[in-house]
Amino acid sequence: MALTTLDPKTALIVIDIQQGIVQLPCAHPMAGVIDRVVEITQAFRRHHAPVVLVNVAGGAPGRNEQPRRLGELPADWAELVPDLDAQATDHRVTKRTWGAFAHTDLHEHLQQLGVTQVVIVGVATSIGVESTARQAYELGYNVTLATDAMTDMNADAHANSVARIFPRLGETGSTAEVIALLAGSRG
């Protein structure tokens, strides 16, 4: 499905573009993903649309069958990459679960701004991005996913999210398409 529109109150949510995550082996070249994330982030700022920068600094408690990869983390593991050029106007969210809405102030912040739609980008497609998209959809936001501004550690998981899950949660498109809609709706 092609992108149709952006609501007048649309926010960008950038998931886990941080030092520890961008060093992991991924399905797509990380440099290109970061370039597109920076491009869309700058476009939202230029149009005075809300930007939310999310990082992960831990994991949810509980047992699972797959051992957690995370052992002792480097001191800068959760720091956002400098390319994002975090601004004072950006809202910062630190999460300890896969999705950015669980146990954070993100929903309340977006509600205070009157946001009705979110554009989501980042890493990992099938984990942080998909979980955040599911939560946003469940909370009633219109959801858009710029699929060329995300990647995953597993190519099959990325492809599954993009082809099977995201079209059920919202609309998908490219960074360029989102930026064009943003410019058209704010021009």
TrEMBL record:
<dbReference type="InterPro" id="IPR000868">
    <property type="entry name" value="Isochorismatase-like_dom"/>
</dbReference>
<protein>
    <submittedName>
        <fullName>Isochorismatase family protein</fullName>
    </submittedName>
</protein>
<dbReference type="InterPro" id="IPR050272">
    <property type="entry name" value="Isochorismatase-like_hydrls"/>
</dbReference>
<feature type="domain" description="Isochorismatase-like">
    <location>
        <begin position="10"/>
        <end position="177"/>
    </location>
</feature>
<dbReference type="Pfam" id="PF00857">
    <property type="entry name" value="Isochorismatase"/>
</dbReference>
<keyword id="KW-0378">Hydrolase</keyword>
<dbReference type="InterPro" id="IPR036380">
    <property type="entry name" value="Isochorismatase-like_sf"/>
</dbReference>
